[in-house]
C-alpha cells in the first residue's frame, strides 16, 4: 500500500528468525532474573501472597476472569507499589467472541496510540480505519488497538484515600473528552483488556484511573498484566493473544503487549534512560516468564516508551535486539507538546515468523498529543 501524505513508512521482511529470537529472549530473561535475585539477597522476607492477591489492582471484572499476573517489584519497592495499587480499580477483561468466527485473513492491523486520557477520539480513528483512509481505500474491518493513557470512571475505584497514598495529578482533556475505556466493549462491541496503572487525580467524586488497554475485533485470550519496576510512577503492561487463519488455512497467533514506560528522572540511578532500560529488561523477562505455547506465535511489543532521546536510548536498542523482526525504529515525530517540543516516543517491535511488517505514522493525532502508529503484519 502506498504511503499517504504526511506519513512515514518503514518495512522489513521477516521469516525464519523465530527460534533465534526466542533464544535471545530466554537468555535475556535468565540474566535479568539472576540480577534481581542477587539484588534481593539479605532483604526482609517477601510479602504474604494472600495480601498481594487482595489488593484492588489485582482484582478483575468479571471476577471469574483468569488473568496471569507478573511483577518485577523488588522487596524494597513492594510497599510503595502496594500503595499505588490500592488507589486503582480492578482489571477489566471482556474477551469477546471466539476467534473462529473471524474471516480468514493474511494481514493483521495493529494501532498503537497514546490517547491522552480521553483527548484522542478513538471512535473517529476506528471510523477512519473502516473507511480505508490509511489503506488506499481498502476497508479495515478487523484490527487490534493498543491504547496508552486510557481512562476509566467507575465506582469500583477506591474512595476516601489517605494523604500518604501515591496519586498523580489529574489529566483532563482541554477540548472535550471522549467516553471512558469501557465504552469500547459496551458500545463499540470490541473485546477489551484494561489494566490500570495509576489513579487519575485524588478526587472521591467521579473517581478515575488510567492505564493501558487492548481493544480488538478479534477475541482476546491468555490475558496477562505485567507490573514493571517502580521508577517514578507505577507502570503495567497489558498482554493478550489474538489468533486466526490465513486464506491458505494456516493458523497464526499473535501476542500483543501494550506498554507505557516511565518519565522518571532517576538522577541517583543513572538518569532517565537507565530507568527506561531497567523497565525494558523487566518487560522482556516478564514476557518470557508468562509466554504461552509458542507454536505459530508472533510477539508485538508497542506503545509509548517516553524515549525523549529517540531511538538512541538503550531501552530501544535492547527491545530491538529481543524482538528483531520488525522495521527499524522510525526517526519521526510521534509526540508534539507545548512550546514546540516534539520527540519520537512511540515504537513498535516484532519478534516471530511473519512475511513482512510495515509501520507508518498516521497523518493525524485525532485530538491527542501523540500520533498513532499503524503496524501492518502480513503472514
Report what the structure shows.
Strand 11, helix 6 (272-289) and strand 12 form a beta-alpha-beta unit. The chain has one domain: Endonuclease/exonuclease/phosphatase (Deoxyribonuclease I, Chain A, 4-Layer Sandwich). The chain is α+β, with helices and mostly antiparallel strands and 379 residues long. Strands 1-16-17-5-6-8-7-4-2 form a 9-stranded mixed beta sheet, with no helix packed on it. Strands 3-9-10-11-12-15 form a 6-stranded mixed beta sheet. It has helices at 18-40, 49-54, 78-85, 122-130, 183-186, 272-289, 314-322; strands at residues 9-13, 60-61, 68-71, 91-94, 107-114, 144-153, 191-199, 208-216, 221-227, 236-245, 251-260, 297-304, 335-336, 342-343, 346-351, 356-361, 373-378.
Keywords:
379 residues; alpha+beta; Deoxyribonuclease I, Chain A; 9-stranded mixed β-sheet; 6-stranded mixed β-sheet; 7 helices; 17 strands; 20% helix; 28% strand; globular; disordered N terminus
Which SSEs are present, and which pair or pack?
Elements: E1 9-13, H1 18-40, H2 49-54, E2 60-61, E3 68-71, H3 78-85, E4 91-94, E5 107-114, H4 122-130, E6 144-153, H5 183-186, E7 191-199, E8 208-216, E9 221-227, E10 236-245, E11 251-260, H6 272-289, E12 297-304, H7 314-322, E13 335-336, E14 342-343, E15 346-351, E16 356-361, E17 373-378
Parallel strand pairs: 2-4, 3-9, 5-6, 11-12
Antiparallel strand pairs: 1-16, 4-7, 5-17, 6-8, 7-8, 9-10, 10-11, 12-15, 13-14, 16-17
Helix pairs in contact: 1-6, 6-7
Amino acid at each position: 500500500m502506498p504511503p499517504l501524505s504526511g506519513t512515514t513508512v518503514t518495512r522489513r521482511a521477516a521469516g525464519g528468525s523465530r527460534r533465534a529470537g526466542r533464544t535471545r529472549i530466554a537468555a535475556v530473561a535468565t540474566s535479568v532474573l539472576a540480577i534481581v535475585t542477587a539484588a534481593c539477597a539479605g532483604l526482609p522476607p517477601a510479602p504474604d501472597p494472600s495480601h498481594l492477591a487482595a489488593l484492588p489492582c489485582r482484582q478483575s471484572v468479571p471476577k471469574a476472569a483468569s488473568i496471569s499476573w507478573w511483577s518485577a517489584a523488588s522487596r524494597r519497592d513492594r510497599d510503595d507499589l502496594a500503595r499505588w495499587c490500592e488507589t486503582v480499580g480492578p482489571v477489566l477483561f471482556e474477551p469477546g467472541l471466539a476467534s473462529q468466527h473471524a474471516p480468514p485473513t493474511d494481514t493483521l492491523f495493529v494501532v498503537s496510540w497514546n490517547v491522552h486520557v480521553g483527548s484522542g477520539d478513538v471512535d473517529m480513528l476506528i471510523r477512519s480505519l473502516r473507511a480505508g483512509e490509511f489503506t488506499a481505500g481498502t476497508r479495515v474491518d478487523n484490527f487490534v488497538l493498543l491504547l496508552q493513557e486510557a481512562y476509566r470512571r467507575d465506582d469500583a475505584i477506591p474512595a476516601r484515600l489517605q494523604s500518604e497514598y501515591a496519586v498523580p495529578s489529574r489529566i483532563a482533556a482541554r477540548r472535550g473528552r471522549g467516553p471512558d475505556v469501557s465504552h469500547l466493549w459496551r458500545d463499540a462491541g470490541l473485546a477489551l483488556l484494561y489494566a490500570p496503572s495509576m489513579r487519575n487525580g485524588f478526587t472521591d467524586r467521579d473517581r478515575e484511573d488510567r492505564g493501558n488497554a487492548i481493544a480488538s475485533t478479534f477475541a482476546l485470550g491468555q490475558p496477562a498484566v505485567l507490573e514493571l519496576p517502580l521508577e517514578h510512577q507505577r507502570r503495567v503492561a497489558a498482554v493478550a493473544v489474538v489468533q486466526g487463519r490465513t486464506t491458505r488455512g494456516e493458523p497464526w497467533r499473535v501476542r500483543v503487549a501494550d506498554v507505557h514506560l516511565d518519565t522518571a528522572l532517576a538522577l541517583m540511578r543513572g538518569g532517565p534512560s537507565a530507568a527506561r532500560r531497567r523497565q525494558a529488561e523487566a518487560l522482556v523477562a516478564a514476557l518470557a516468564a508468562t509466554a504461552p505455547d509458542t507454536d505459530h506465535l508472533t510477539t508485538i511489543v508497542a506503545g509509548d516508551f517516553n524515549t525523549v532521546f529517540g531511538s538512541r536510548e538503550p531501552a530501544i536498542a535492547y527491545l530491538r535486539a529481543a524482538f528483531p523482526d520488525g522495521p527499524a525504529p522510525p526517526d519521526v515525530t510521534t509526540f508534539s507538546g507545548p512550546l514546540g517540543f516534539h520527540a519520537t516516543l512511540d515504537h513498535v517491535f516484532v519478534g516471530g515468523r511473519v512475511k513482512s511488517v510495515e509501520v507508518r505514522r498516521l497523518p493525524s493525532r485525532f485530538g491527542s498529543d501523540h500520533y498513532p502508529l499503524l503496524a501492518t503484519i502480513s503472514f
